[in-house]
Design goal:
The chain is α/β, with parallel strands linked by helices and 478 residues long. Helices cover 38% and strands 19% of the residues. It contains 18 helices and 18 strands. A hairpin with a 2-residue loop joins strand 3 and strand 4.
Length: 478
Amino acid sequence: MENVLYVASECTPFIKTGGLADVIGSLPSALSTNEKMNVRVILPLYDEIAEEWKNEMKFKAIIPVEVGWRNQTAELYTLDHEGIMYYFIANSFYFTRKGVYGYYDDGERFVFFSKAVITSLEYLDIVPDILHAHDWQAGLTVAFAKIYQPIKHLKTIFTIHNMKYQGVIPNEMYDDLFSLPPEHLSGMEWDGMINCLKAGIFHADKVTTVSPTYAEELKDPYFSEGLHPVLQDRQVDFIGILNGVDTDEYHPLKDPHVDVNYRYSRSKKQENKVELQKQLGIPINESTPLYVMVTRLVEQKGLHLVQHILEEFLQDDVQFVILGTGEAEFEDYFSYIAHRYSEKVVAKLTFNEALSRKLYASGDFFIMPSKFEPCGLSQLIALQYKTVPIVRETGGLKDTVIPYNENTGEGNGFSFTNYNAHDLLAVLKYTLAIYHDEQHWKKLAKNVNKVKYDWRQSAKEYKHLYETVCGIKGVTQN
């Protein structure tokens, strides 16, 4: 059995800012339960982590950590949660702050974290065979593992969750932070800056990302944020493995936030829609199709497309609810539309987990026209709640949403190819036609009921990757 150490900057249920936390919170458990692997997770101990978790942690060691000329220390804590051992790296200077990211010295903070992870390996209760690091915050962990070689035959995997965020540090900080010979700079430098994401890609034995389509897209300059030459150099060692969703956490039969729990029942979904219409103060009509969005209000999520066509679409008998926060441009727009079309549109410009679950449970359709989407979690949650996704064919959206075909009766949602507002409008109009066609709507609902994107398949693929990279007999690379 391989010992695997996951290195990441966030993980549910302890700390979350995005989808990375969901992956780190679910995949180790799936590997442990379904593939009988020995997985540990190591994270920073942020001030934002709730006291209830901190109170359960056990102190393990004080570890000296050199960050350039700085003699820092890391306090190592452990927490056994639902059968997985978690390690936490504490340092009051770097991590006792409000929030997780967004500080001027984020680069230095994660140089420290990466050095602390490598230094702490001798204090863990396992000897890792594989170090699996995630996103730029852990990219230097892979580099340091290769440079310092703390464990003989230690293999490394690096996973890209979002290419847009790369963790850049001025080159002139190399001597100040790294205390390494100059020949190591080339493996970390890109475009005149130290690039933590590039460091992970360059040094890892294998590189993965979170969906097969996103893996292909990242070889294209349009999607790669400038790093496509680095990935092209590693293309033999680069694969996409689709993320899953925690089917226990997101389950309409068990969800305490859902007004009327259900498993497959369309009638109970309609009861949830009626309850939501009451709560939001919009006309109560279970036959009016409800389109929902739960999203960050940023350009990546395709909101410029929605802006261009929403008023035209609202001329039909539809209701539209959006939940999220983000850029002022989009918050202002949806506030205006909700005021102008108060009988049809509700905009909740906040983060509200309970309301998000109600929207997933109540909606007939979930709109997700992203400009790019490495994997996407929202469309997987929508499918869990039997809400039909409408997506643009990019990244994991293309891999998980199969467009409904009237002729064959196959498909679990709707999609469009080009990043074009009128293409979005056309597919929205088509969804209305299918919704009002009883035969096709029943067939589509039946298809959605069969969909299950849990972590089992992903865990199998990761186990195969681990066995491949470790050279286990009888295992060959796909």
